[in-house]
Amino acid sequence: MKTLRRDKNKSAKRKVKKKWKDPSSRVPKLYNEITDWVHSYEGPNSVQRGVYNSCPTMIHEDDYVPMDCCLCGSKMESVHDTHNPFPLAPFCYAKEALEKGLPHRSCTDCQPKVLISRNVNPYAKAEYSRLCKTYHKEVA
User: Fold this and answer.
1) 89 and 104 Cβ atoms separated by less than 8 Å
2) Least CB-packed of 16, 51, 71, 92 within 10 Å?
3) What is the DSSP string of the chain?
4) Measured in whole angstroms, how far is the alpha carbon of residue 10 from the centre of its chain?
5) Span 19-41, pLDDT tens digits
6) What's this model's pTM, rounded to 2 decimal places?
């Protein structure tokens, strides 16, 4: 089974690289659109912060310990600047990273790369969805 997954990931990476180099492809344009959108986001407002901080499956922002991005190494000072890096790194929520000491979180600057690789690769998209459902069943 692991060999099959590895083969699917390799073929998906080849497809993404091929689409990235193709001048008629929408992938580079999509990357720029996502990058612009991510950088225009100013962070959560006070209502969102209240929701995030009171949710039992999320980290309270006061409990967050700054960590480095697993993709580029930059320092993430706020929990709101961390994201799930799957499929470029193992699937990991912020609370799980804090409780188990896992380094698998990515920064806002790397998020467009993660979103592109997650959404261009149908296998990664399905696997991400499955992992999310499994996690939320375990927490509930």
Assistant:
1) yes
2) 51
3) -HHHHHHHHHHHHHHHHHHHH-TT-SHHHHHHHHHHHHHH-----HHHHHHHHH-TTS--TTT---EE-TTT--EE-SGGGEE--TTTS----HHHHHHHT----EETTTHHHHHHHHHH-HHHHHHHHHHHHHHHHHH-
4) 19
5) 666 666 666 676 677 767 666 66
6) 0.58
